[in-house]
């Protein structure tokens, strides 16, 4: 089989999941791996050159794909799809795969082109053909794919990103804490990821007189947004910006939180929500993509992000109704719920791996 997908570097949610999926497939079957990301030039990922680099890289990737389909006679293609204009590349890649007789699996990691019909993705679907297996992250994406693109339910598999988290049976005794409420937000900081909504929520909490400490983490590549973030830290002594966090530092970040806020405008099923859930943090999120079902399953709070002021006021009001002791008492319950979710997702992943590795064109 051919695995065609982006793996780190650069590191982001989709590339991280792709790497884990590749490792799982390699354990049970020979895999011809083609990296569709120019990892050796990852330092340009946030620059204007990245699009030109990706366009140039399209040609060697296409040659490798055609070689694998013709010379190696591979007959199964697993493709982790681009979002947006990157699907121009996918149109050609899945078209070649279908033309040369491959069974195609398309793994969707973005929700926007599913929930908002896209002519480009409709062309990708036509190029891939009716026999393609679609893998989505949640029920909302499944429904959107079925309703907006007439993909039959039997051609869609649901696999949550929770499948790529490890089970842990550790039970911790919650310690009584008297400090101010600890609130966190972590992302590749941008307007799309809702940083403005987070800052508005914290400002509203301050006005309500709620004692809290807030930490924001993640890289910020937009100079204007960085200025706004620095200004917010100056105006709110309770707020600290930590920059990018990785490894153990990132784990400690989540373990220290009482609440995790993630009011993103454009998401599918973000890993950061589950990284917070591992530590039992209480989740507050928007309802983009599959976040509504994910957050509510984890006993969190979600609300559509239709207006910044409305969401921020509602979230702040919701938080103000809870005492720290309430968050602590239910922390282990939230951990247990997520561990059960992980186990269920592991079963789904095992079934999907078996289907991919036994597929025939």
Structure description:
This protein has 361 residues and is α/β, with parallel strands linked by helices. 48% of the residues lie in helices and 14% in strands. It has 13 helices and 12 strands. Strands 2-1-3-4-5-6 form a 6-stranded parallel beta sheet, sandwiched between helices. Strands 9-8-7-10-11-12 form a 6-stranded parallel beta sheet, with helices on both faces. Helix 11 (291-297) links the parallel strand 11 (282-285) and strand 12 (301-302). Helix 3 (87-99) packs parallel to helix 5 (119-128) and helix 7 (195-208) crosses helix 12. The model has no long low-confidence stretch (mean pLDDT 94).
Average pLDDT metric? 94
What separation lies between the terminal Cα atoms? Answer: 11 Å
Helix segment tally: 13
Radius of gyration: 21 Å
The amount of beta strand, in percent, is 5-15%
Strand order of the largest sheet: 2-1-3-4-5-6
The strand count comes to: 12
Estimated helix fraction: 40-55%
Shape: globular
- H/E element order: EHEHEHEHHEHEEHEHEHEHEHEHH
Largest sheet: 6 strands, parallel
Structural class: alpha/beta
Low-confidence stretches: none
Blueprint (SSEs and pairs):
Layout (H helix, E strand, L loop, with lengths): L1 E4 L7 H16 L3 E4 L13 H22 L5 E5 L6 H13 L3 E5 L4 H4 L3 H10 L4 E4 L2 H11 L6 E3 L22 E6 L8 H14 L3 E6 L5 H13 L3 E5 L3 H9 L3 E4 L8 H8 L3 E4 L5 H7 L3 E2 L5 H13 L3 H34 L4
List the keywords:
12 strands, alpha/beta, single chain, 361 residues
Put the structure in a nutshell.
This protein has 361 residues and is α/β, with parallel strands linked by helices.
């Amino acid at each position: 089989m051919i695995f065609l997908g982006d793996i780190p570097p650069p590191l982001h949610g989709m590339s991280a999941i792709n790497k884990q999926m590749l490792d799982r497939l390699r354990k049970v079957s020979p895999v011809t791996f083609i990296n569709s990301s120019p990892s050796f030039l990852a330092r340009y990922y946030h620059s204007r050159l990245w699009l030109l680099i990706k366009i140039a890289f399209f040609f060697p990737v296409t040659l490798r794909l055609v070689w694998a389909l013709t010379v190696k006679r591979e007959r199964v293609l697993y493709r982790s799809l681009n979002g947006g204009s990157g699907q121009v590349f996918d149109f050609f890649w899945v078209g070649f795969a279908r033309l040369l007789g491959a069974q195609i699996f398309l793994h969707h990691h973005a929700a926007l082109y599913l929930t908002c019909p896209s002519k480009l993705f409709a062309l990708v679907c036509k190029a891939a053909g009716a026999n393609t297996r679609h893998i989505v992250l949640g029920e909302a994406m499944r429904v959107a794919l079925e309703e907006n693109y007439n993909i039959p339910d039997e051609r869609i598999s649901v696999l949550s990103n929770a499948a790529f988290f490890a089970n842990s049976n550790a039970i911790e005794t919650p310690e009584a804490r008297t400090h101010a409420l600890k609130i966190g937000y972590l992302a590749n900081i941008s307007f799309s990821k809702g940083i403005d909504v987070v800052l508005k929520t914290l400002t509203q909490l301050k006005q309500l007189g709620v004692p809290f400490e807030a930490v924001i983490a993640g890289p910020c590549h937009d100079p204007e947004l960085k200025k706004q973030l620095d200004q917010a830290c100056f105006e709110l002594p309770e707020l600290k910006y930590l920059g990018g966090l990785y490894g153990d530092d990132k784990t400690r970040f989540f373990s220290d939180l009482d609440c995790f806020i993630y009011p993103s405008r454009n998401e599918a099923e973000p890993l950061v929500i589950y990284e917070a859930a591992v530590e039992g943090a209480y989740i507050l999120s928007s309802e983009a993509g599959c976040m509504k079902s994910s957050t509510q399953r984890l006993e969190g709070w979600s609300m559509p992000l239709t207006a910044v002021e409305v969401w921020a006021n509602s979230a702040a009001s919701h938080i103000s109704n809870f005492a720290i002791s309430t968050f602590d008492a239910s922390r282990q319950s939230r951990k247990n719920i997520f561990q059960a979710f992980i186990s269920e997702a592991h079963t789904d992943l095992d079934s999907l791996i078996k289907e991919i590795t036994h597929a025939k064109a």
